[in-house]
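Run log, item B.
One chain of 48 residues. Sequence copied directly from the ordering sheet:
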Amino acid sequence: MLNAGDELLLVTTPLTREAAERRLRAIGRHGKLARWLGENGSPRVSDG
């Protein structure tokens, strides 16, 4: 389980990087049920 303040190193191929980033954003916003709650991990305007 990841906790606030934990660091994570994720290694992906260039083809899967965007999907991995989207999933991590979704989980960060709504937890492991993010997809079920309708979160798709799209970047928000304020995300950079």
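Observations after the first pass:
- The chain has a mean pLDDT of 86.
- The chain has one helix and no strands.
Flagged for discussion on Thursday.
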